[in-house]
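Molecular record:
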Amino acid sequence: MGADHGGYVLKEQLKVFLKDSGYQVLVLWCLQSGCVDYPDLALKVAVAVKTGQALRGILVDGVGTGSCIVANKVPGIRAAHCYDRLTARNSREHNDANVLTLGGQVLLPDQTTLIVSTG
């Protein structure tokens, strides 16, 4: 997982949900709010997935689009910007997405837990 200042709060809430669901969570960037720009975090998480340090990645920035664009520049990464269960399901089932990007300023915590639990 990684987040910039626009996604920090949502990332923290999502991290608790994932740990409570039994997932091991590796936070690669933005341990405090306001500490990084989305291109840096997207690259770091995408490389962790590409190299096998992580099975899948989750990026949270303000809207989710910027992180998706950057992550998809890494060969072998199939990042998907999801905003509901349908986009999440389609991204996993039909596109084999291995990185999920979310908008911390446009999604509520309940929405993100539905999206993440879909794939």
Remarks:
- The mean pLDDT is 91.
- The chain is about 45% helix and 15% strand.
